[in-house]
């Protein structure tokens, strides 16, 4: 008997500096995804806060196990009976002036089942456009995957997308989830290209939930949240603005791709 398909959803947002307003918008979109039948829902990177003040996230960082943002994620998961991949949120770091950029995962009963702290910190300079995440973020160390309702899920965040060795280190997964706030400049050039590459080389689905639009601070994120199948085909996407992207993860599709082109078995390195 074949394993049934599992519906997954990516939430796209254009978050601002008001945490409660962002949580309300996230809650609305989670409800929309759940109503569409999604069993696993992923929020974008820094869904609770995007501010022109890069130190603002330090002021709202939360300790492990408590706080407004973690309570929100727990409640949304249990209320809507979905597995919720909480995009990313600022968690306490060892340094008092930094955060961990963390993805927290809650099951459909509101239990925390996984945490991933972003390993690769973005740095970029082109003309007047400049980013240095290491100024306010402390890097994580551990590769994380978990068994969810749609199979084995590997966790990553935004800039991690450029480092294929991270995804290889996850082992064999059925789904890669990547919350992001890609810049418009780098997104235009590389977003879809890299996402499809990760799907093809790992022969799995990729769910990318992005920030997508012009934020109150003036920053513009690329958006284009999408779901990609194991052959590299984009099966659902939302170019810009808040909304939900929904598609079915089909285990038979994964099995067919891996049977016809057994590249994962042909690996000689790593």
From TrEMBL:
It holds the Pfam family CN_hydrolase. Keywords: Hydrolase. Residues 6-251 form the CN hydrolase domain. The keyword Secreted does not apply. It comes from the Bacteria. One of its GO terms (molecular function) is hydrolase activity, acting on carbon-nitrogen (but not peptide) bonds, in linear amides. The keyword Hydrolase applies. Belongs to the carbon-nitrogen hydrolase superfamily. NIT1/NIT2 family. This is Carbon-nitrogen hydrolase family protein. It comes from Zoogloea dura.
């Amino acid at each position: 008997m074949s394993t049934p398909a599992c519906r997954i959803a990516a939430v796209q947002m254009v978050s601002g500096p008001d945490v409660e307003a962002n949580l309300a918008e996230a809650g609305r979109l989670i409800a929309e995804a759940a109503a569409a039948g999604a069993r696993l829902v992923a929020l974008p990177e820094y869904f609770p806060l995007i501010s022109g003040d890069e130190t603002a996230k330090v002021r709202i960082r939360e300790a492990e196990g408590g706080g407004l943002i973690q309570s929100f994620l727990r409640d949304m998961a249990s209320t809507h009976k979905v597995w919720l991949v909480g995009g990313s949120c600022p968690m306490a770091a060892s340094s008092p002036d930094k955060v961990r950029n963390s993805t927290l995962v809650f099951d459909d009963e509101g239990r925390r089942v996984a945490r991933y702290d972003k390993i690769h910190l973005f740095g970029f300079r082109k003309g007047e456009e400049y980013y240095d995440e290491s100024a306010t973020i402390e890097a994580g160390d551990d590769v994380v995957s978990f068994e969810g309702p749609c199979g084995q899920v590997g966790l990553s965040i935004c800039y991690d997308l450029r480092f294929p060795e991270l995804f290889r280190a996850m082992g064999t997964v059925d789904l890669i989830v990547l919350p992001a706030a890609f810049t418009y400049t780098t997104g235009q050039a590389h977003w879809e290209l890299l996402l499809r590459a990760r799907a093809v080389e790992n022969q799995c689905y990729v769910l990318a939930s992005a920030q997508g639009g012009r934020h109150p601070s003036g920053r513009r994120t690329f958006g284009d949240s999408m779901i990609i199948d194991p052959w590299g085909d984009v099966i659902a996407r939302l170019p810009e603005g808040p909304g939900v992207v929904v598609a079915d993860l089909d285990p038979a599709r994964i099995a067919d791709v891996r049977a016809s082109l057994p590249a994962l078995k042909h690996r000689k390195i790593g």
